[in-house]
From TrEMBL:
It holds the Pfam family LysR_substrate. SUPFAM superfamilies: Periplasmic binding protein-like II, Winged helix' DNA-binding domain. PANTHER family: HTH-TYPE TRANSCRIPTIONAL REGULATOR (PTHR30126), LYSR FAMILY TRANSCRIPTIONAL REGULATOR (PTHR30126:SF4). It comes from Pelomonas baiyunensis. Gene3D superfamilies: 3.40.190.290, Winged helix-like DNA-binding domain superfamily/Winged helix DNA-binding domain. The keyword Transcription applies. Keywords: DNA-binding, Transcription, Transcription regulation. Belongs to the LysR transcriptional regulatory family. This is LysR family transcriptional regulator. The keyword Nucleotide-binding does not apply. InterPro entries: LysR_HTH_N (IPR000847), LysR_subst-bd (IPR005119), WH-like_DNA-bd_sf (IPR036388), WH_DNA-bd_sf (IPR036390). PROSITE patterns: HTH_LYSR (PS50931). Residues 11-68 form the HTH lysR-type domain.
Length: 326
């Protein structure tokens, strides 16, 4: 019986291609002609493969090249492996032209997910040498507050989109994405809905506030809007927070574009508070190249930075919340 190492050595691309040719042409003779070999040499190669795998690949009772069930399975899996090998070779060739193997995006939960997916769709629609899409695998991380910066600074992400207050670091470059307003909201049936404005800190502290957990693990987590002694409901995402507000489970501030349609429809009530206007500038940032240059070394990162330099793209990321809250 063959050892596992001998079986692996027998399953060469050449052996798999031979099986494919025999099955496709229907006979050993026709396969031998196509491959430029004599039929006896091809028969010998098949027997060597059968001996190594300890299975019968072809039905010897038939005059044609009829595969056994084991042979059929090897043919199917062998074709898949050959396709995978071709794909790897093509990916390696494309990556050699400057495309990264993988690009990780850390996107803040406050940004419009629909716009993020539009960008990913546009990225995959690009056609490079050979007509295929970029070989770079995209990985999306959704982060909250300080977690967006942490993902970038720790090397877990290549670009942070929607980072809040700028974190000073010589290792990254940072550009403004645009201003984002936050509004304080409650459900129409919440006790604060009919309270006179502006709401005082004492009034708000009497009611449960809904917050979203900061996703940072190493950096100091950020807590926004929680008053001393206030009851807190902590949820994992802003979409969950909006759902909690709609159900009257508490009060809290959320990005204005995210709840615009709910306010217009009367499902949420916007309230002014003692804090006045709340908002800030969102940013996008990326790590500098090893040489310290702000110019990206990879073509995938360069693609994303070029799109983020567009006013329309930045506006969509901040405002295009309709239809997709995941």
């Amino acid at each position: 019986m063959s050892t596992p190492q001998e079986k692996r050595r027998a399953l060469t691309p050449e052996a798999l291609a031979m099986m494919d040719t025999i099955a496709r042409t229907g006979s050993f003779a026709a396969a031998a002609r196509e491959m430029g070999r004599v039929p006896s040499a091809l028969t010998y190669s098949v027997r060597q493969l059968e001996d190594a795998l300890d299975v019968l690949l072809f039905d010897r009772s038939s005059r044609q090249a009829v595969l056994t069930s084991a042979g059929q399975e090897l043919l199917v899996e062998g074709r898949r492996l050959l396709q995978d090998l071709d794909a790897v070779a093509n990916r390696v060739r494309r990556i050699a032209t400057g495309w990264e193997t993988e690009l990780t995006l850390a996107v803040d939960d406050a940004l419009a997910r629909r716009a993020v997916f539009d960008l990913m769709e546009a990225f995959y629609a690009e056609r490079i040498d050979g007509g295929g899409p970029p070989p770079t695998r995209l990985k999306l991380r959704v982060e909250v507050l300080a977690g967006t910066w942490e993902a970038l600074l720790s090397g877990q992400a290549d670009i942070a989109i929607g980072a809040g207050t700028r974190v000073p670091s010589a290792a990254v470059d940072c550009e403004p994405l645009g201003p984002l307003e936050f509004v304080f909201c409650v459900a129409p049936h919440h006790p604060l809905a009919q309270a006179p404005e502006p709401l005082t800190a004492a009034q708000i502290a009497e009611h449960r506030i809904i917050t979203v957990a900061d996703s940072a693990r190493q950096m100091q987590p950020i807590t926004v809007g929680v008053l001393p002694g206030q009851d807190v409901l902590t949820l994992p995402t802003l979409a969950a927070k909006v759902e909690g507000l709609l159900r009257g489970l508490g009060c809290g501030s959320v990005p204005a574009p995210m709840v615009k349609r709910h306010i217009e429809a009367g499902r949420l009530v916007r309230k002014t508070t003692y804090e006045g206007h709340r908002g800030g500038t969102m940013h996008y940032a990326w790590r500098k190249s090893p040489s310290g240059s702000s110019q990206p070394t990879g073509k995938a990162l360069a693609w994303w930075l070029a799109r983020l330099s567009s006013d329309a793209t930045r506006k969509a990321l901040l405002e295009q919340h309709e239809g997709l809250l995941i």
